[in-house]
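Ticket #494: bound-state structure for S-adenosyl-L-homocysteine.
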Amino acid sequence: MKGFVTLVGAGPGDPGLLTIKGKAALEQAEVVVYDRLVSPAILAMMPETAEKINVGKEASRHPVPQGEINRILLEKALEGKRVVRLKGGDPFVFGRGGEELELLAEHGVPFEEVPGITSAIAAAAYAGIPVTHRDFCSSLHIVTGHARAGKELSIDFEALVRTKGTLVFLMGVSAMPGIVRGLLAAGMDPETPAAMVERGTTPRQRRCSATLATLPERAAAMGIGSPAIILVGPVCALAEKFDWFSRLPLKGRAVVVTRPRDRAGTLSARLRALGADVLEYPCIETKPLVPCPAMTAALEDLSGYAWLVFTSPAGVAAFRDELRRMGKDARHLAGAKLAAIGPGTARALRDMGLMADFVPETYDAAHLAAGLPAEGKALLLRAEWGTPALTEGLKARNIPYEDIAVYETRYENPDAAALRQRLAAGEKLLVSFTSASTVEGFVSSLGEGADLTGVRGVCIGVQTAAAAKQHGIAVTVAEKATLDSLVAAIIKGA
Ligand code: SAH
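RESOLUTION: The complex was predicted; output attached.
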């Protein structure tokens, strides 16, 4: 059986620049063969079950030779697998995509190519440089600055200068002074605007603007390194006016998102769009308690309860799964009313076809307890060690309740050691906290004695902030308990 190979362009860095078709291919992949320049957020889209093969250069190791990559692709395809070959930028723009297809074609393995956004155009765009502009040029030339081993650059500089077009050099960082000399010797005006864009489209993007003559000196002063593109042509002067990316409010700021992985997406994407260097650091993982005899018994006969109370989507999920296991559906709930702590929890109920009868105006446990209509016994289906604010509040109002733990939360993250080191090195981090449990999760995941002085906690509400302050974390609090408000607070805290 012959499998199928999809060559996918991952774009230049910003995960938002992966195409919809590329993402779909990645989500279907059984084997993913990827490169060094592909962003972690894109790698996170691979199915957990997919076999992942890194063929890029690691700090100490050499990259896998091209012939070997070609053979891996062939071998996996011949096993009948759906293979995705994920490459930085566009696979066919100095990406050796063509070479990788040769062997597959020879063996009659079916394949497709999903173009990507090339760094040659996108890194320029994110630095405010349109690679063409009617007033300045009428052609665009993408050139490799890489010399074959032991050889001189084989670039026809005279021909390039004659085009009067925009020149973009890839793989040219170390050869840059030679490229500049070549262009000058071929008669290009030393005053021609030029630029380099390092790590384009990523939060660590840097632009170096100069003239052709001053580029080597400026780039050296800034310490511009690979990966970077070199641009030469009058359009480079537009960067001063159009450099929108570097002006974003969170440009380059490290922001840690502590929500559970399945709920982090929207917040991360919004922060990235504001230029933030987002680290998704889910440090609480919720795990339903199965079996949960107390919940089974309570759900068996709901007639004694006036309200079912939910304080998180995880609680709703545990409840939904238990009902299913009991072979029951929504009709079983007739008569009981449903309370949700906030819109996220209400949405989780809605997803199972249930409308929340009560959501407090302020989304926290104290307000939930204070506002819940006193109509009889309340069944609380929530986390082990849930906040006492809820039960205290109900007690104060003489509302009877039964508090059942339906899931547990665990604190761990594989990136903890790395994060601890960054903090120890004095790095400033904005950390978004969406609940008191994310604070506890964050602190516990880092372990005893971690240095929290560099952390500014941006908290969704006062209870979350109180939890952070208890650990000595400086806080900024969102005005309202919504994502919009949280994002605004992150900008304020930056
Ligand atoms: N296929 C890729 C290019 C691969 S060659 C593409 O279409 O973008 C590798 C070169 O691409 C690097 O040496 C650098 O010049 C450029 N490059 C790749 N990613 C880049 C980025 N994020 N910013 C600037 N240059 C980048």
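RESOLUTION NOTES: The longest strand covers residues 401-411.
TICKET STATUS: resolved
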